[in-house]
Amino acid sequence: HPTNHTQSNYENAENAALTSWKVSAFRGTDYLPKYFINGVEVVMSASATVDEWTKVINGVLGINDDDTTAKDDDLPEDTCTDDQTYCQYAPGAGYCCSAG
After folding, report:
1. 6 burial type by CB count under 10 A (0-12 exposed, 13-18 middle, 19+ buried)
2. Count of other CB atoms within 10 angstroms of residue 95
3. Residue 33: how many CA atoms within 13 Å on its side-chain side?
């Protein structure tokens, strides 16, 4: 019966969208784009280069060499809001977290 099939597809799409929204709301995703590595928010520009992403991922993996060591001026601390501080969890990788 075509009506049931269409309704089923609609319900499936609605449930998928609702599930996606719930996961986003739980994680505090309040703007886009927002990136996560292993469930931890990573502050990166939408225009980040492959080299910048490589530094972040290598830092998470513990790969340290001269090319992947972040300098203090490379940290995106200025992207955090006034009530947040920048929490670095690996060389070249961090996120904005609650101050205090």
Report:
1. exposed
2. 21
3. 9
